[in-house]
Amino acid sequence: MDLAANLERIRRDIAAAAERAGRDPASVELMAVSKGHPPETVRAAADLGLTLFGENKVQEGKAKIPLCPHRLRWHLIGHLQSNKCRDALLFFEVIQGVDSLALARELNRWAEQLSRRARILIEVNVAGESSKFGCSPDRLLAEIEEINRLPRVEILGLMTMAPWTTDAEKTRPVFRRLRELREEAGQILGAPLPQLSMGMSGDFTVAVEEGSTMVRLGTALFGPRASAWKPRAAAAP
User: Fold this and answer.
1) pLDDT tens across 115-151, in order?
2) CATH classification at residue 103
3) Domain for residue 32, yes or no?
4) pLDDT digit string (tens) for 149-167?
5) What is residue 81's DSSP assignment?
């Protein structure tokens, strides 16, 4: 794996996609998805200037984050179970993948107990895939006002996972619809939502062309995992 070469290529591709859309490449943030990779790989990526990392599971992040450079920022990007809300708030600065009012209420409850704010992205299952988490577009628009009223919850924007395909162009309608939903949600709330987390290793250039502000890249950056990293023991908060 040539991490530096991969990163250079990704940054070049992001810049080209942003320019095609008439956007500033600096408006797109690169998240390194470190799921299954050891702290040593995270440190190598950090040495190249990456600061934003994403983990899919609370338990893996809980064990890994204390072993990584303290200056890094961490987002939870996988599905969050309600019984993991406390640890998610302790170890991650942003929780993506919030897909229901009930989960937002549980995060609000724990944030109150911990004297923290729950900074979230709402996950929308734009394509309606039964195999994926996320609320429907209609549910998003119906519940976002109530989520926004939770005193300890701050909605930063929306996220989605497009259907897997070998033709990235087929993901464009999904990304375009999420951008439209962000605008609709902003009109309901009376304030714009800054973040659109969309685009992964196979489709991130299309996502950038459609307005993504954050792409979540694992394989494109780190290459395929030979074997998943397993924590020896859970870290204490």
Assistant:
1) 999 999 999 999 989 889 999 999 999 999 999 999 9
2) 3.20.20.10
3) yes
4) 999 999 999 999 999 999 9
5) -
